[in-house]
Design brief:
Layout lengths: L5 E3 L3 H25 L9 H28 L15 H11 L20 H26 L7 E2 L2 E2 H27 L7 H8 L1 E3 L1
Antiparallel strand pairs: 1-4, 2-3
Bound molecules: protoporphyrin IX containing FE.
The site of protoporphyrin IX containing FE (HEM) has 23 residues, from α1, α4, α5 and α6.
Amino acid sequence: MGATEKIYFYPVWLRIWHGINAIGILLLIFTGISMQSSLDNSVIGFNLIINIHNYAGVIVTLNYLLFFIGNLVTKNGRYYLIKMKGFLKRPIKQAYYYAWGMFHGETYPFPLSEKRKFNPLQKYFYVIVMYLAVPGVIITGFALLFPELIIETVYGVSGVFMTAIFHSALGFFISVFLLIHLYVATIGKSPTENFKSIISGWHHV
Ligand code: HEM
């Protein structure tokens, strides 16, 4: 068995951000789905569901500032930088490992270290979700809270309707990301290793 090393990957501020974000987004997904569905909402009440959705949205937004500023002012931000060299080759190599290599005893193509916290595929997903999807869902969400700010019609289609479609589509994308995120987090030395790391801050490599 190879020697293991402990790396402090998740500083306190990042763990606080992640915990609040996870709970907030789960609440947004559940209340978002129940607002859209034709299910009977009388158990919790439609107004309460809207209130929870709005408050959770504001908390996730303020919390997002912690992530954004934290990544600007600490070295955590450098893990999100994408290099042009091997732009496609590297994530494809990782996808091949997930689809084939790991079931056939191949070695992990991008071992984690102080310099590399994410594999290339994971990095792309985190960048897309954290720098495009989450800001997008926040902006469209606030626009829907203040619909008077939205352009009335875009190419003859209601601006509010278009904004609502974008908001739901991004919410759906984040929900799918979350499912993949949870599955991928179980891949490692043991299925619980990554979950322990995001709580303790320390990761065994
Ligand atoms: C029940 C909910 C969640 C659980 C159990 C969970 C679990 C984890 C775990 C175990 C890690 C560390 C290992 C890794 O990087 O894969 C992690 C990191 C991360 N998660 Fe989650 N997650 C959840 C929700 C979310 C959501 C909703 C988002 C974004 C919308 C998210 C975004 C991230 C990001 C960006 C990181 C890397 C942070 C960094 O190291 O800079 N997670 N999560």
